[in-house]
Amino acid sequence: MSEPASQEGSKPVQENGKEEKERKQEATEVKVPTESSQSVPSSSALDNSSNVPETATDEIKSQEIHLEEQTKASTYLIKDSDTNVSKNFVVRKPAKVIFNLDPDVLNSKLEQPWKKNFYKRVEARAQAMQQKIINKDNLKKELEKKAEKKFPRNNLAKEWFNTENMTLKTRAYLLDKLLPTLVPGVEKMLMQVEKKKLWAEADITTKFDPINHLGEYLMRNNPYYIKDSGMSGYQRVMRDVTEELKIHVPNTIGNRVSKMKESIKQKREERECINEVKIKVANIRKQALQEQFSEWILDPKGMIPLVVIQNVLHEFFQNPDFQLEACCKQLDIADSMGPRLNKMEFTEYISSYIADFKSETFEKLLKHLCHCADEFREIIKTDMRRQMFAELFLCCDRGKVGFLCRQRTLALLETFYDQSSKMLRSLLRNPRQWPFIEFEEIDLPEFWGDMDNQKHIYEDFDKVLLEINALLSEKHASKTQSKLLETPEDQHKHDEYTESTPPEQQRGTTAEQEPNRISTKEQEQDKESTGKKELYREIVTKQTHTGSTPEQGSSRELITEQRRHSDSVTEQGYSDSVTEQGPPQRVSSSKQGVHMESTAEQGRHRESIAAQGPHRGSISEQESHRESVTEQEPHKGSRAEQEPSGEIIPEKQQDIDSTLQSGRGSIFRESRKSRESASFEHTEILPQEKRTQEQIYEEELFVSPELQEEVPISRRKYHLSETTKKEVQKDPSCEKSQKIEGKSWSGELLTCNWNMDYIKCEEEEQANLLYSSSRFTDLHAIIRNIQSYKEVKGGSAFNGVSFNLLQFVQLLETFVGEDAPLSVSETLTSFFKRGYVETKEEKISGLEQIRHNASRVRRELLLEALFQKWDSDGSGFLDLNEVDELLYTYKEGMEKESMKKAKLHIQFPKPHPGQEVRMSSKQFQKYIQLVVSELRGNEDHVLESVVEFLMNSLERSPTENLRNCARRKWLYRIQHAAETSGVSLEPVYTETFKALTQDAESHGNKKISAHISLLEENRLLPDRGNVLLRNVASTLDDAPFVLNRVLYRDMKGISFTVVDEGKPIHVPQVQHHGNVFFWNNSINKSDQNGSFLALPLQDAYMRVFGVMAVDTLRDPQKINIFVPHEIRFYQGVANVFSTAYHYVHSREHILHVVITGIAWLCEITSDITTITTYFIEPGPKQDSDYVLRNMMVTRHLGLTKIHRNPPIIFRKTCIFRDFLFKCTDTSEVILASVCGENHIVIPLRERTGKALGVLDFNIGRNKMLLYREFKDLQKMIKVVQAACYEILGEISGEIKKNYILEIENVGEVQRAGILFFRIMLQELQESLQLLTSLDFVSLLLYDYHPSVEPTYLPDTKSQEVEANTKLVHDILLAVILFIHPELELSSDFGNWDKCKMYVNRHFVTNICAFDPTARHVEVNLKLIGEYIRDHSRIEVWKFGNSVIEYLYHWAHICLTLMELSKKTSSAIAPPLLSKTDSYVYAKMPKGSLPGKC
User: Fold this and answer.
1) Distance CA 722, CA 774 (A)
2) Is 41 exposed, middle or buried (0-12, 13-18, 19+ CB in 10 A)?
3) How do residues 589-608 score in pLDDT, each as one tens digit?
4) How far is 1265 from 1247, CA to CA, in rounded Å?
5) Helices of type H across 456-553
6) Is the separation of the CB atoms in 835 and 788 below 8 Å?
7) SS3 assignment, position 1092
8) 392: helix, strand or coil
9) What's CA 393's distance to the chain center, in Å?
10) What are the residues whose beta carbons fall under 8 Å from the beta carbon of 1199, sequence distance 6 or more?
11) pLDDT per residue over 678-715, tens digit each?
12) Is residue 1492 a contact partner of residue 1164, using CB atoms and an 8 Å limit?
């Protein structure tokens, strides 16, 4: 254990002063021997180093050895002081001083005197030599200067410089070797000729021979033998020319050196240039970041929380397109909102991570920052809304019980929804539909057969979508027509026609060019609006981001994404006017990054809208907005709009501007009039309110927030060009408002850590109360361990009856939605305060429930602590006889008879051989509570008395208590490894073997080996037994001999005896046992000494699924048998390993079910972009928050990518994606929008109601799925959740395994693969049983005869009737062929009148009794598939008959199960048990699943 090793580090800080004083004293103590050693007389020896006496030399060496020994001794003392910290030795003082001394100071003190003198003399000589060289160089320079003054430079020598390649080497050689001597010689010779006047007297005979004179001169002045007496000016210039010419001679030293210098110079210049560019770019980027800083909402001090910026960078670095994962690892995200950044710190912090970014990456980062700035505004707005709802909860919870009634809350939401106008309902979500109500609250016929589109969570969603697609097609047609006007004359005529045409006739062009207009619906009731004007507004509506329609005002994301649903719009869309489609929610500008607005007037116009704020703004803000609106022609049928998103092509700018002017004034004017005529601060929704007031109120509700939300997007000002920045100056009015709907941000996100602050943890409260009680002192340490070993801290359980604070806030937030302004939340809050009233009985009932919960938690804590104290060896069970023996002594046996009655109400496990009945912790708690219920008195008081009596009766020594504590920690690590393994068994195996080896070393003084073997079905060699034991894990030493080896029944060994009897077997001496199998054959029989222990691994039903074996064959001791307390602990290890093993496999099976459900859903839906599956795990630290594991991701095509090493997601990295943790905190469905993409986040719940995982459905930019897809999503979730309940119940032993289909007996993995379809089959069978005969009669009447049909029916109607008839006949025939496969071979097969006779009163009974996986079932799958697969899911949905809906799904599921039963070996397998950085891909076969179209 590591506790003693940390004693030195845990000393109080108050001893620092004493330690400093000790150091000073110790330093003086050390100086004494050092100085004395240095005072030895050895200077004489240094002075006469050439004649050193031997005695002096020996004395010096002895002193050095002595000092070295002192140094070594001091280092040894340091090591001793570090290793034995708990010992208080005096030698620790000098050790500390020497350890803390500077090494240079220490070495200087230990140096000898002769070394000092020697170094001084050497240093003096070196300095003298250096000074001599310097003086010589200075003298040479002075002489050269004098020579230059005496002989000036002659530049004629520069004519020798010529770099011609042909003569370069020769010229360089001559200039270097010959010409410096030859030229002066020729000069001397010519001087002699001139002196003797031989030029004029050429005919006079003379003895002077110029050649001889020149030769003599050259011989006398040979540079190899005669030193240079001096150089003329010509020679000096020639020398310089020679040196310069040598540089150009290839393959010479000078040439190479020259090239190297040139290269170095060039690189230096390039580096300097690059550094200048980097500095310039860094400054430009910093300037851009400083401008971007104004986009953010700041706290009152003008700062941004550091954690927000870190989350922004984390999301950007995580993008796989940029490949910046290395930068992500450098981020150390803060744990709180405390650290803040001002403008300069913001710039420097981001600049430190982007120094090496390319310009494109930086532009994308700026765009990402701007998007995140808008998202942060929404986060703050959401936080304000959640605070509002939290205060509402506290106000409604008048009894302070901590929860509110769920049914009353939903009833109030329904009332509020019903009393709201249609415009407001377009923003709200229907509280009568899922996810507000649970699947269990929906009747089966309504859940599986209801196809009424009006019951969508958004009102008239499908109808609005169809209208929008039609209008978009019409708009596209008009756009195509305008493109056909190729000549300028035609275009001019078309422009004139456009100017003279009323706005309602320009709906195609105007709607296309104004995609951001705010829609209107209430104008439908304006009598002054004509039909054409209404049509114009409807078309504008379809192109807006707010998305209100004549029937329902859906939100911006919905309308934006309709472009994707129309093929023509998808292909061409806004290609002429928008360069890049941006996110539809709060991001409306198409190309953001480095382009500024074209004019400052547009910026002022948008800022004026932003400054107006929502409808809750003050009067002064509204007045400022009115002043900013330009007075234009009134247009009563329009609403406030904004300029189009995206960049407009320059050649079309003039036409678009002229078109926009026609509607701006009227739209803004009406919006202004509506704001002037109503006040919205205290508006209440009551039935008696007038309709006109509702209209005005809803107009303001709808217009103001949308105007405000569109503003931030139209101002994206980041570019790196300095010229552009000089040309376009930033208008002060363009700066974003620091207020949200007129409210300032306080600087804190008060709801970001609600899971830790507001979730009431009853266990912790009761534990604190028990700590303060002196009655249970012996249990305090155990209770602390239980609390510290708690699995997942945080999160609320959904019980369907009440809401706690987090669940209530989340429900109201889901109801209101993200697009609604804060005023809607304020209205809802005031409505709730008036409507939520509790009776006195309900308050008393709530308090009683709180008391009951507290009592239950207190009982569980006390009994669990008592069980662990009793089970001091960690075996995981207690003997019932031992418990009874001690219980019957309570009150001296007076309550013995009453206690015996408790056994009549509990079913104990089967007794083991020897009549030993073992009770687990849960069984022990249940038994004690039954015993207490039979005793007289208050149950709580009686239970505490019984626990106190048992606690005091149990006598445990301190050694046993310490051993129990250590073993509990090791057992906890095994379970913790399973919970944090990411669905892998490798960490579980590792921790299991660690627990065994650590306990053997600490409490048994043994060296053990261990391995785990699991039962498998013997398919290869069934003659050797039906099952076999395969070794799946072992300790490292035995791995080469044991791992992956197989033990058959016909081999000798005791493992199968353990499997059959279900009890451990201990062999004290294996050498004397004849039935022990040795895996390592290389060991001699004489060395096969030791003990062997085989333990059964049992599941919750006490069925053996494997064996854990422990032996001491590698222990060198002769006597090494296992003592009883060790055997009991190993039994506890086997028990905990079994729990951890099944925990991992339960998660595996759940993943298998989810994969199957996702595959089914992806085949019938098209609007789901990705589906991500997360599991909840405990945090890495003991008291930290839980984390999420990204287990797998399913893309649009249904291919599932399973992470073998799943990444971990922390809450602190999800400020912008907190919807995942909101879902797990509340165990409720979350509808969220992030970065323009909408998410439906659904929890996977445990049987207790807490979330164990999350399914994140990303539906892209669609506001919501179509009702058909929305219903299919509900079906998938309901079946997956039911499968989770069944898997978890079977693993824990709460329910018995229910094998419905024959294929379920094949194996656990195969059963998990078909469990989804089996449960869906059961749901459909129950729904079919609720049908009546009249439901089938209406289908049998469907028939189509073209010759009989009336001629007045249109062709489309006739085709529809024919298609419906074929659909009914094909579905019914397919189902009949499943039940009556013999019909295929009969003569009645082609006659529908005879085939429909099979639809009789036994038809439904036969369907419900049909097992598609039974071996005796033989049907023609190909023929049935031809009947079913010709009809799409959409066709069946449009038909709208519940019977056909049931039978269609039933037939597809039967086909799928039959295909899976024929190829079980190729079915989807769960993730492999390996920890690698790779992936596994899984996909269901498509042939058996229904298609999308």
Assistant:
1) 75
2) exposed
3) 333 333 333 333 333 333 33
4) 29
5) 461-483, 488-500, 507-513, 531-543
6) no
7) strand
8) helix
9) 31
10) 1481, 1482, 1483
11) 333 333 444 433 343 344 444 444 333 333 333 333 33
12) yes
